[in-house]
Design goal:
By secondary structure, this protein is an alpha/beta fold. The protein is built from 10 helices and 18 strands.
């Protein structure tokens, strides 16, 4: 006999945790940190980077001649540079102090590089140290990223010292071993002309890829990229950008900072305000900027057309010409629809009051889950249209779409139970239902407005 009059059976329905993939980015390092190859370290602020960087390397001598300093290292330069390559470098601890500073260096040999210095500092008495190739660029990336705001974190992904081709190989291995871990990668400048990188990108053009690469290109090399590469946000830096800046890092921050909710709607990527970056000069460059726009390559501009002095991202597109938020919306829908449906199925197997079975009621409940998720997309500024439900067979649904019945709608169709099992008799046995589908319209912003103004001096009485 029970000791209690009432015995309470408890079941728990757990809501899914918010998906965080789309807020996850990585700055790529090639030998600039002490982390092991394939490891990624979180930065919550710029100062976190200092403890990760490899120590400065010793110089053997510094010699000035005709506006150029030749620096000789004690050991060979890092493995990721070759003669003729350029890299930003910081010289410190040298005497006279005029040799010190951050410069754009050119590799001239296995252990030598040069940098421009207009004034003669005098005969070197202490050569000091230099930062290994890749260190200053990583500092540029992090400094520009965090200049946009302190509320975002970012990883540093160490791929190990090596040239661009070896970096591509390591990144391929990392993504294969760590799927759905990093949403967007900030690519080193040296990868821009690397053939294996261009080939690598073709593997991420599919709608379900959900992986993006923020690439710094140049006016001489951007034509190497394909207009089918929805995975690439390409940007040409201003020729006036200082050596403390990595402009594409600002665009990366803008892409990762979205946190969709009813009170924090997703804004268009195009014309996002950027901080701490240099606008591409307009004077004398109108043809160049028009060509970049035509190729869907971004650059930093001043928002003066709107009467503003802010710097902004022009034009905010991926290489296929769509605003980045178009693909962001598509990815959000894939991630959250999959999670919501799986959550309903799992909870339905653990709810003794209302279990989820493969029947018409179960199909209706799954359709409701999809509709609720799409309604959130509309509320969050990710999708346009009105969410509607339909219960048609596959052929009938296709005919309705072709007839324009659901034009402008986000429609969720669920093939009725009886129709589905009749058409797919083997699926009920294995618990498979493939009759749930939706038509989804991602939101996007304006890129161009054509306004017609008629001017007249005709007056009517």
């Amino acid at each position: 006999m029970a000791n209690s009059i009432v015995e309470v059976d408890v079941s728990v329905t757990a809501a899914p945790t918010p998906a965080s993939l789309q807020r996850t980015g990585a700055l790529i390092s090639q030998g600039a940190t002490t982390a092991t190859v394939g490891d990624y370290k979180l930065l919550t602020q710029y100062s976190d980077l200092a403890s990760l960087l490899i120590a400065p390397l010793d110089l053997q001598s510094l010699t000035w001649s005709g506006g150029t300093v030749t620096a000789t290292a004690v050991a060979n330069l890092a493995a990721n540079v070759s003669t003729g390559d350029t890299f930003p470098v910081t010289i410190s601890g040298a005497s006279p102090a005029g040799y010190n500073g951050t410069f754009l260096a050119t590799v001239t040999g296995a252990d030598t590089f040069t940098y421009a210095l207009s004034a003669n500092p005098g005969t070197e008495t202490a050569p000091g140290t230099y930062t290994a190739p890749g260190v200053v660029e990583l500092q540029q990336m992090a400094q520009t990223f965090f200049a946009q705001g302190a509320q975002m974190s970012v990883y540093v992904l160490e791929l190990g010292a090596g040239d661009a081709a070896s970096g591509v190989t390591q990144l391929t291995s990392f993504i294969t071993a760590n799927p759905s871990t990093i949403y967007a990668y900030l690519i080193p400048r040296s990868w821009d002309s690397e053939p294996t990188f261009l080939s690598f990108l073709s593997g991420y053009t599919g709608v379900t890829a959900m992986t993006y690469f923020f690439v710094t290109t140049t006016v001489a090399s951007y034509t190497q990229y394909s207009s089918t590469e929805k995975c690439v946000v390409a940007l040409v830096e201003s020729p006036d950008a200082p050596l403390t800046e990595f402009s594409c890092a600002a665009a990366l921050w803008s892409a990762l900072h979205y946190d969709p909710s009813s009170t924090n709607k997703v804004t268009p990527f195009a014309f996002s305000f950027l901080s701490g970056v240099t606008a591409y000069p307009v004077k004398g460059n109108s043809a160049t900027l028009a060509a970049l726009n035509g190729a869907h390559v971004n650059y930093v501009a001043v928002a003066s057309e709107g009467g503003l002095t802010n710097t902004m991202l022009a034009w905010g597109t991926t290489l296929d010409g769509r605003d980045f938020t178009y693909w962001y919306s598509v990815d959000w829908a894939q991630i959250n629809l999959g999670r919501a449906i799986a959550n309903a199925v799992i909870n339905g197997s653990n709810n003794a009051l209302n279990p989820l079975y493969f029947n018409q009621d179960g199909i209706n409940r799954l359709q409701d889950v999809v509709a609720a998720t799409l309604q959130s997309a509309v509320t969050y500024g990710l999708s346009i249209g009105t969410v509607v439900r339909s219960s048609l067979s596959g052929p009938a649904f296709t005919q309705a779409l072709d007839a324009g019945t659901y034009d402008g709608d986000d429609v969720v169709n669920a093939v009725p139970f009886a129709d589905y099992v009749a058409a797919n008799p083997g699926d009920y046995k294995i618990g498979k239902y493939a009759g749930l589908s939706a038509v989804y319209i991602p939101a996007r912003g304006f890129l161009q407005i054509v306004f017609t103004l008629n001017v007249t001096d005709f007056l009517s009485q």
